[in-house]
Amino acid sequence: MARIANVSAGQSASSSWANAIRDASVMQMTASERASVVPVEGQLVYVSDEDRFYVYNGSDWVRVGWGATTTGRTGCAVKRTANQSIATGATRAEITFDGEDFDSDGFFTASSTDITIPAGLGGIYAVQFQVTWASSPGTTALTRARIIPSGATSYNVIDGDASQYQVYNYGGTNVVTGGSGTWVFGVGDKITLTVAQGSGGSINVTATMSIYRIGV
Amino acid sequence: MALISNVSAGATIDPTWGNAIRDQGVQVTTSGARPGTPAEGMVIYETDTDRLLVYSGSAWIRFGNSATGGRTGCTIRRSANQSIATDTRTNFSFDAEDADTDGFFSPTSTTVTIPAGLGGLYAIGFSASSATTLGTTAMAYIYCAGSATQIVTTGAGANDNGFPVVSSRYYIGCSAILPLAAADTIVAGYYQNNGTSINFTARLTVYRIGI
Q1: Between chains, do B171 and A157 touch, taking CB under 8 Å as contact?
Q2: Which terminus of chain A, N or C, has fewer Cβ atoms within 10 Å?
């Protein structure tokens, strides 16, 4: 990247300043224009049709910041809109999501239980999940995000509401449980939403889950 | 910071513009070669740390990174089984670290400490697992002390029956986004009451996501 050294008073402008001026500001361009740029390490650009900043780290263009509008976010918001029946008992059930309200990069394909971190988009993510039960799930209810590292034989969890003391009826017959948190994801990691209930019978649920990248 | 005033059409290029142009861009440098007399608002990118920094007028502040190595924080684990007695709240003693950008942690220890100059908004994640049933009132917690006492708990310990990854283990975990100051400390632990001691492994991540 062309740079201008400290300039002395009275010094004449150099013709090489043209390249320095070209490189000095945060350049605005489209995604297709960015793809044709021959970048230098540390170059920062604003991609106007994505509403995102990118910095070139020497090998890849990496998104920095959160984006300038909501469309510049990185992540997805998925949902289960049709009733899913959850049996009573200790066995966990995974929510099968049947739709999505937002998906910046193919994190999800309906219908599926899994959100998967796409290539190049590992990072620190904010996670939120919520389950709406058609009736009370009883005292042994559990709402949990399971994070399964790519190729791993173990996993981690973010626990949400877990008992009758943390289950809230917001005015109707439905009961809502949920949770939120953060996690550091790698490419190929999967996240699922699991539930259990101990009402003594099956209960229909709907659900939502979102994950959004908040850091590289 | 040098600035260029509004320029009229046909104006002659002024040599002093050089300093202004120098200051307005993102300068590429290394951590050992930062500008010696920075102006407030100056932005640099360090190729050796993969970080973007802005000069606040008194210090260089990290505000972005372009690779995982440019994160600020740590990932630590309890890899050997730790026995936690029944009905006794116990902090995990972490014995390994997978990443540590700034000396947040030194194994083996229970405590992560926010280094000088690195206060900010942190994303904290904690998850523990056991091969033994957890009892009815199992609880995982994150406890932060120092500038403010902040406790995050969850009470959802339970067997993940029926899942193919590790169907025989019992999991519990919680996470949070908390503001922390330099010298604040973070511990994470567990409570269980199944009537006997239980062996656990655990993982704790602490990463700065904002100033």
Answers
A1: yes
A2: N
